[in-house]
Recover the amino acids of this structure.
């Protein structure tokens, strides 16, 4: 046997052995990982607002990577926009306000959302009603019958405005009084006078104050909605059942990032990197809420109770049915 023939046989044998070893050591499920995750490539719906800073922290600090997750983000206008994307499977997890999530879960029997992590809780001036500098309007009562810009109707924005107007005897109609405007476009909406006021969220409220002198006429994180739970991260019940380890890994990474977001300096430094047009000056002077690190049914029940009060749902909601188990 020639030397070249022997090398050919030996090479073939080594290739076969290597192939058998890879089959034995590998996992036959596409997208699974060595650490047992059912799925490693995750698509997350998010928004370019201060509320989602922990997502950017988790990406920047490698917290998702450390759990074996490769997270791709997709920007959505609001929680309502993320719901059909969750239902279709285009998103695995999505940031969304609790009003939209709970409403969809109640009214659509085929959609079973589960909150896997709390995202944001309001604080003073994180959610406000703002008008133009030269506006004649001074209070919520002055806006009765007027057009108010919100990111989406029938969500946390409209609920907060309606709750603020109730003590002043103001009844606002979801369709007649509210106009959908993406948060980054609210400044232009005020300038063009297409709306008389906007329900501003940070950092856009501070940005409008600094750029056009917009005035706050109501702090929506006060009175009955002080320190109000605003939004969290959800997945469908089916996704969680099919991917329990992946869900737990996502929860662990996000919980760590939520805890790190207690450092205001970290949040204000990362905010300009993903919120288009937000300067370091805005980030350093704006109002910040809190980023809960645990799922708390008692806290979230407040949202459901106010929703019932204003007719977003017809029957009392038990939020425990919409909460996923926390990561171990």
């Amino acid at each position: 046997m020639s030397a070249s023939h022997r090398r050919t046989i030996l090479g073939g044998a080594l290739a076969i052995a290597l192939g058998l070893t890879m089959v034995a050591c590998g996992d036959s499920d596409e997208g699974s990982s060595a650490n047992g995750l059912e799925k490693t490539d995750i698509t997350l719906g998010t928004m370019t607002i201060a509320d989602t800073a922990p997502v950017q922290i988790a990406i920047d600090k490698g917290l998702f990577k450390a759990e074996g997750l490769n997270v791709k983000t997709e920007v959505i206008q609001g929680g309502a926009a993320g719901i059909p994307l969750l239902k279709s499977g285009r998103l695995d997890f999505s940031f969304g306000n609790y009003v939209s999530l709970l409403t969809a879960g109640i009214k659509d029997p085929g959609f079973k959302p589960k909150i896997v992590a709390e995202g944001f809780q309001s604080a003073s001036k994180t959610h406000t009603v703002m008008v133009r500098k030269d506006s004649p309007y001074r209070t919520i009562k002055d806006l009765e019958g007027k057009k108010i810009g919100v990111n989406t109707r029938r969500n946390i924005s409209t609920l907060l405005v309606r709750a603020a107007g109730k003590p002043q005897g103001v009844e606002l109609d979801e369709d007649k009084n509210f106009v959908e405007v993406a948060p980054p476009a609210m400044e232009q909406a005020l300038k063009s006078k297409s709306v008389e006021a906007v329900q501003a969220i940070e950092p856009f409220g501070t940005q409008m104050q600094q750029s056009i002198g917009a005035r706050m006429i109501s702090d929506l994180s006060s009175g009955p909605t002080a320190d109000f739970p605003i939004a969290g991260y959800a997945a469908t019940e089916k996704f969680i059942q099919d991917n329990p380890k992946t869900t737990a890994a996502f929860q662990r990474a996000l919980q760590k990032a939520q805890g790190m977001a207690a450092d205001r300096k970290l949040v204000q430094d990362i905010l300009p990197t993903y919120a288009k047009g937000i300067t370091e000056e805005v980030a350093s002077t704006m109002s910040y809420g809190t980023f809960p690190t645990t799922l708390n049914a008692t806290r979230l029940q407040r949202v459901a109770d106010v929703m019932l009060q204003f007719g977003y749902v017809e029957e009392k909601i038990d939020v425990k049915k919409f909460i996923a188990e926390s990561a171990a």
